[in-house]
């Protein structure tokens, strides 16, 4: 049974804005699932619907074995980390961390439970009901205190417990926000771009810490981001969302290498994938033409049904080859960042931009004319109008899709 199941969820704001359009996905227990998309794609709206902060127009949200679609937020047993920390500035770090336990009435509920079973039976019944031994205020306060210190040590903020949020750095505030969520025994942890306010170096190290923490605790996380690097490095699976539609899901490596449409192909990758206009050759339905060059596709797939249609060829910068044959291109700029070399070119016939990335030595000069080819084993072809993948050399089946 998945920890979270979202089934055919739709959400509109007013009559014009469709935030979520029939979104369905399952998140397994103990999975780090990343929801990736640009601003306004619907990713934050989706996790707010899961948390109960937004109502859905139709569809179901199931957490564990409970349909919680109409439950208020407090009854869904989810914890959420917001982009802007959302810490209480007048409370210490300790009190911010302990607040979820106290706010949910943990202390009062346990004390009420004790009084309801009577003094003589309190120890045995409460041990069974709540997992505690003799219950009193000191015991419960110690429980909260132990959990605060455990989480603080785990996040390396145990020396900040007496400080207020305004007295610590942004990275430390983000750790407190994470700790406030992790201190809960939640079924699902929802995180809305929690690292976006950190500087690049701290963001990189915090990604590693958060991923390791999730593995250690075995918790289920749904993580929202627009950052493809976060998605690729942290997610067990990623779901790419755009304009309220969930376009593709899968393991990061699979989504990167086998994008199902142009949006996914373009959104993943830095530098982004080269998208080049192409068409089916008039004299050979297994060949395509780009930049004035005819490229014969191995395995001779038939592109007959795409004659007269506009196609787009997708080639990752690392898969652009400079060869003795190919489409003519002019070198515009060569730059090096560390051991990685970036070559920016323009196809002579169409003036389309092409970027090549390599760690090999590059002996090219600005203005030089070269011949470029795609690595034929890493080539994707999309239909322009639908933007759907019609052929990929990385798929086992090499027949063009109608």
Task: Give an overview of the whole structure.
With 402 residues, the protein is an alpha+beta fold. Helices cover 27% and strands 31% of the residues. The strands form four sheets. The chain has a six-stranded mixed beta sheet with strand order 6-7-8-3-9-10, sandwiched between helices. The chain has a six-stranded antiparallel beta sheet with strand order 13-12-11-14-20-21. Helix 2 packs across helix 5 (137-154), helix 2 runs parallel beside helix 6 and helix 3 crosses helix 4.
List the helices and strands and how they pair.
Elements: E1 4-13, E2 17-27, E3 32-36, H1 43-51, E4 58-63, E5 66-67, E6 78-81, H2 93-103, H3 106-117, H4 122-130, H5 137-154, H6 170-182, E7 188-192, H7 200-217, E8 221-225, H8 228-234, E9 237-242, E10 245-250, H9 252-257, H10 262-267, E11 274-280, E12 287-290, E13 293-296, E14 311-315, E15 320-323, E16 327-337, E17 340-347, E18 353-358, E19 369-374, E20 380-383, E21 389-392
Parallel strand pairs: 3-8, 3-9, 6-7, 7-8
Antiparallel strand pairs: 1-2, 1-4, 4-5, 9-10, 11-12, 11-14, 12-13, 14-20, 15-19, 16-17, 16-19, 17-18, 20-21
Helix pairs in contact: 2-5, 2-6, 3-4
